[in-house]
Amino acid sequence: MKSICGFCNNQSGGTLIVGLNDKAKPTRYTVEADGFTNEDQLLQWLAEQLVQWIGPAAASLVKLNFESVGESRVLVLRCRKERTPTYVKSPKQHQASEFFIRVGTTTRQVYGTDQLDYIRQWFPEV
Asked: Would you list the domain boundaries of the chain?
């Protein structure tokens, strides 16, 4: 969820692909390995997790689908930039929301004045 939140807070959104290694080679990921019976079941579960962890508005900006890469299937999550900041909050705990951004190929949590500065720069309508 942290990476998805980071992509939603990124200036241009971003894409997360599950099932490819760092060299863009398929890892032979299967939904069955995660305990799901088919791709649709996994997509429905993931959509529900997004709503719980980042909220329905931000979750609606994440498009989920499976695509073929050679003979393998990969899970693709395309995140559009939200007009307002996206936060991660555990649905089962009453903890403060956490703010993440993408820095290069990493996802970083941002705190305090750095968070305020980032929001002012990339979300001027807030």
From this structure: 2-122
pLDDT tens-digit profile of 69-91?
888 899 999 999 888 999 998 76
* CA-based end-to-end distance of the chain: 23
> Is the CB of residue 9 less than 8 Å from the CB of residue 85?
yes
Q: Is 26 exposed, middle or buried (CB count within 10 Å of its CB: 0-12, 13-18, 19+)?
A: middle
Using a cut of 0.90, tell me whether the model's pTM lies above it: no
With beta carbons less than 8 A apart as the criterion, state whether 8 and 62 touch. yes
The highest-level CATH class for domain 2-122 is alpha beta
Q: Counting beta carbons within 10 angstroms of the beta carbon of residue 102, is it exposed (0 to 12), middle (13 to 18) or buried (19 or more)?
A: buried
Q: What is the DSSP letter of 33?
A: G
User: In this predicted model, what pLDDT tens digit does every residue of 41-51 receive, in sequence order?
Assistant: 999 999 999 99
